[in-house]
Amino acid sequence: MAKFDVVDMSGKKVKSIELSDDIFAIKPNERAMHAAVVNFLANQRQGTQSTKTRGEVRGGGRKPWRQKGTGRARQGSIRSPQWTGGGVALGPKPRDYSYRLNRKLKRLALKSAISAKAAAGELVVVDEFKIEEYKTKTVVKMLDAIGAGKKALIVSDIASEKLVKSAANIPGVKTSPAGLINVYDILNAGTFVLSVDAAKRIEEVFA
Q1: Which of 68, 83, 124, 177 has minimal CB crowding within 10 Å?
Q2: pLDDT tens per residue, range 120-132
Q3: Which of 71, 70, 178, 168 is nearest to 114 (CA)?
Q4: Phi, psi angle pair for 46, to nearest 5°
């Protein structure tokens, strides 16, 4: 079992906790993590880019001049791609970029990301997030006390509205419930901050 120090919101060590080696101490699989990040970014794409073909641009129904005898190149429409204001040849159309990874690969990638953060000393376990009011200063003070730096992912057992809203306008800080964490957010964060209950929930969900 991997052993981690548990601190309170003031950064003081209060106890130690043992977490599963199968999640927090495996050898990170870089290929799995890369596949998960590429998949996440692809799924974020809206795919709404669009251009008009020559058939969709208004006008151009009449042949601009007769086929022969003018000395100019033959033309069938002023909306052909070579004309200013014409259609676009082979341009982008709306499409869906999303795709799915198999469950085994997704789990391996997630475990690898968590283990990579733990191995790098960028995982901080907090006993609990005591956010009693909607106050950004409380979260900023906690992050400074535990040495989280400018970029952090704060993971709680369940979605706490006070925690989420208090951290919402801090640049570089994201919050997430334990059941919805993803590889991209973990790797993108400078520090992975989670509560004891969140760590236990991650063990239950991803073991």
Answers
A1: 68
A2: 999 999 999 998 8
A3: 178
A4: -80, -35
Q: Which helix (H) or strand (E) holds 73?
A: none
Neighbours of 149 (CB within 10 A): 14
Cα gap 92→47, rounded to integer Å: 9
Contact 83, 73 (CB under 8 A): no
- Specify whether the CB–CB gap between 91 and 5 falls below 8 A: no
Sign of the Cα torsion 24, 206, 144, 133 reads negative
Per residue in 185-205, pLDDT tens? 999 999 999 999 999 999 988
Give tens-digit pLDDT for 31-77.
999 999 999 999 999 999 999 999 999 999 999 999 999 999 999 99
Cα–Cα distance between 49 and 1 in angstroms, integer? Answer: 49
* Distance, CA of 170 to CA of 71 (rounded, Å): 67
Beta-carbon contacts of residue 103 (< 8 Å; ≥ 6 apart): none
* Distance set, CA 94 to CA 43, 190, 205 (Å): 14, 35, 36
Asked if residues 203 and 178 have their Cβ atoms less than 8 Å apart, the reply is no
The pair of structure tokens assigned to 199 is 């760590």
DSSP 178: G
Q: How far apart are CA 165 and CA 168, in angstroms?
A: 5
